[in-house]
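Q: What would this complex look like in 3D?
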Amino acid sequence: MKLKLTTPLIIVNFKTYLEATGRKAVELAKQAEKVSKEIGITIAVAPQFTDISSVAKAVEIPVFAQHMDPIKPGSYTGHVLAESIKEAGAVGTLINHSERRLKLADIDAVIELTREQELISCVCVNNPSVSAAAAALKPDIVSIEPPELIGTGIAVSRVQPEVVTTTVKLVRNINSDVTILCGAGISHGEDVATAIRLGTQGVLVASAIVKAKDPYSVLREFADAA
Amino acid sequence: MKLKLTTPLIIVNFKTYLEATGRKAVELAKQAEKVSKEIGITIAVAPQFTDISSVAKAVEIPVFAQHMDPIKPGSYTGHVLAESIKEAGAVGTLINHSERRLKLADIDAVIELTREQELISCVCVNNPSVSAAAAALKPDIVSIEPPELIGTGIAVSRVQPEVVTTTVKLVRNINSDVTILCGAGISHGEDVATAIRLGTQGVLVASAIVKAKDPYSVLREFADAA
Amino acid sequence: MKLKLTTPLIIVNFKTYLEATGRKAVELAKQAEKVSKEIGITIAVAPQFTDISSVAKAVEIPVFAQHMDPIKPGSYTGHVLAESIKEAGAVGTLINHSERRLKLADIDAVIELTREQELISCVCVNNPSVSAAAAALKPDIVSIEPPELIGTGIAVSRVQPEVVTTTVKLVRNINSDVTILCGAGISHGEDVATAIRLGTQGVLVASAIVKAKDPYSVLREFADAA
Amino acid sequence: MKLKLTTPLIIVNFKTYLEATGRKAVELAKQAEKVSKEIGITIAVAPQFTDISSVAKAVEIPVFAQHMDPIKPGSYTGHVLAESIKEAGAVGTLINHSERRLKLADIDAVIELTREQELISCVCVNNPSVSAAAAALKPDIVSIEPPELIGTGIAVSRVQPEVVTTTVKLVRNINSDVTILCGAGISHGEDVATAIRLGTQGVLVASAIVKAKDPYSVLREFADAA
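A: Here is my prediction, written as C-alpha cells for the whole assembly.
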C-alpha cells in the first residue's frame, strides 16, 4: 500500500554531491532520521540510484529516487524502472527536477507508473503556470522551484513570495488534494517558516543541508521552523 | 588501479528486465560467477543502477553500470555519476547502448571520466563506420550491435558476418589496443564461437541469458564456445 | 495584432512528406485555400520550416510552423525562432506534436513566446490528462491526438469517442476559452462531423490530405462536414 | 551533382541572430557574395531554415543549412529533411554544432543522408579527439570549435593553437581528404591567417560577422587574410 506522508514535509535531495554519495549518503540519511524522530516531522531523503538500497536499509524515514523513466520492464538499458527503485526500498520519486526535465507526456506516464507501483510522485516545476499544468496530472506532490534560485542560498519564499502564493492559488484551483512544496535557496529556518505561511506544506532542499558543515544542525533548524 | 579484463570476454547486460531486478539480479550474477569460475573465462554483468552495490557485494566477477552521465560531482539531480557507480562496486560501464544513445561529445566526455576514475569503458555502436568513430575516442572496449537484431535471437555473427569483419578491420586501422565485442541476437554457443572466429574478443549478450529458463546452462554453453 | 481564427477549424499538417515539400507544399496550400474560400471555413496549413515563406506568399489562408524552439534571438544554431517564422509569414505554430515532443517547461516557454510575438499556439497532446495540463498553460488551441492512431486511417472520433469527450470535459473544467481540436486517423467527412459533435471545434489532419490522390476532394469533404 | 568547394573556405553561420533573420539574412548574404567575388574566395552562408530559400534565390554563393535531422521523408512533424533543404537551395549543412549537438549514431546517419542527396556535410566538433571520431565518419568537412571560446572574440587559432594542430594531426591520421576548418572567437584577419598556417583550410565564423557594424569590411578583412 502506498505510504501517506504527513505534513509538514521536508525532502532532502542528495543530487550527485560527493558529500552525499555512497557511505556518506547513508550517514546523511541517518542525520535526517535523527532530526525526524526528535521533532516528529516527516523528512524524506532522495539519494542517488546506486545508494537507494543501502540508505533504505539503514533508515526508517521515506526514501525517494531522484528520477524515474517512463518505462515498463524490458529492453531499456541504462534506464530507471519503477519496480527497481521500489524493490531497492524507495517509496516515491522526484519527477522533472530542473536538472532532469522531462517531456510533458513522459511526466504523465511516470505519474501513471507511480500509481501502478504505489509510489509517491513529486513533480518539480519552475513557475506558477507550469505548477498548474503539473497539478492537472494529479501527482501526490508538486514542488515549485525557480531554477535561477537553486543553489544560491537566496530563498524563493523570501525573495519571490508571490511566486509561491500564485502557485498555491493556481494549483488549488485545479487540485485540492496535492501537497505543495517549494524549494530553491532555502537556507534558514525562517525560509521554511515563510514557505509554510505562504501556503505550502513544506520544502524541497539540497545544498543547504548536503553542503553544510553540520547537516544535523541545519536540518534541525528547518524542522523546528516547519 | 583499473582492472584489466582478460579475453575472451562475455558481458551480460541485465537491462531493465524483471528477471534481473533486485534479488534476481544477485541470483543471476551468481550464476554468471559460477560459470566464470568453472570455465576460467571472464564474465562481467551489467545490472541496473539500483542493483550495482548488492550485486558487487555478492560476487567477485566484474560489475558494469549500464550507463553513466558526462558529469562531475555537483548539482545533477537524477544523473549517474562515475564516483557513485565506482563506490557502489562497478569496475566499468556500458556507454551509448542502442537503448541509451549519447551525443558524440558526451561519449567522449564519459570516456574521459572513466579514465580519471579508472573505470573500464565499453562503447556500444550500431554499425562499422560508427565503430571506427568510437575507436578513435580510445575506449577500452567497442561493442558492435546492429539495433535491428537486438533481442531477436538472430545472431549478428551468423547473419551479418561482414558487419563484424568490417568493424574489426575499420577499428583496427585506427586503434590496435581496443577490445572488440559484438552483440545482438547471440543465442547459441556457435554464435559466440563465430563471433570470435570473425576477429572479436567476445560478446555482449542480454535476453538470451536473462530470459532463459536456465541461464546457467546457456551461459555455460556460451563460455564453452568462447 | 494576433490573428483570430474562426471555428470550425481544420489544420493540415504537411509533416516531412515529399508530397508536401517545396513546390508541392505551395500547390497543396493552394488547394486548401480553394476549399477554404468555397466553403467559407478556416483551413490552416503547417508546412516545413523551409517552405513557410513561399507558402505564405502564395496563399491567404493561415500558415503555421510545425514546431518552435523555446529561445530568444541569439546563439542558437539550428533552432527555430519565433521572430523568424513570423517574418517568414507564419501566424502560429504547432507545439509538442507527438513526433516532436517537448519538455513541459519548454512548452510553457514556447507558449509565452508566441504571446509576445502575437502568434497562435496549438499544443498537441496524447491523452485527456495531458490535455488538461496543456490547457492550464493557456494556449490558444489544444489538439488531442492519440499517437497510436496517427497515420492509421482509424479516426479517434470514431473509435475513441470517450477520449475526445473526456478531453473536452477536463479541458473545459480548467479553461473555457481554448479552442479544442482532435486528430489522428481522421479520414472521412463523417470523422470530422463526429469530432465536432463530440465537442471539439475542428480537426488536425495530415496523411489523409497530404497522401490523397486528390487532396482537394478530401479536404472539400472534410470542410463540408465541419 | 555535389558541389565541390574550393579552399580556403569561409562559412558564415547566421545562427538565430535578429541581425541575420529574414530580409536581413538576404542582405548579409549579399555582402558575403560581394566579398567572395571581389577576392575570389569561397564564402558560404548558413541562414536559418526559414531563410534558406530566399537567400539561395538572392545569391550565387553556397548556402548551408544549420542542422539536418536523421530522417527520410515521412511522418516527422517539426523535423528538417535533406530533400527539403536541398529543394530550398541549400548545397550542404552544418551538423552537430555545439549549440545543436547530435547523438553519434545520428551524426553518422545524417552524413549518409547528405551523401545520398549530394549535399556537403560539415561536422562541428569540440576537441581534437572528437574531431578524429568525426573524421572516421568521412564527412566532407570537419570544423573544430572549442565551445568555451564561441562568441568570445578570443580566437581559437590565437589562444589554443595546439588544439588546432592536434586536430589537424589526428584527423589526417584517419582521413586525408576531409577539409578541416576551425572556429570560435575568430575576430581578425590575423586569426584567419593563423588558422590556415596551423593547417586548416579555412574558418567557420558567426558573431564577428553577423554582429559587426560593417559585416562587409570584416568579411573582407577575413577573406584578404585567408
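A: To summarize the key features: Chain C touches chain A through 24 residues (CB under 8 Å). Chain C has a mean pLDDT of 95.
Q: Very helpful, thank you.
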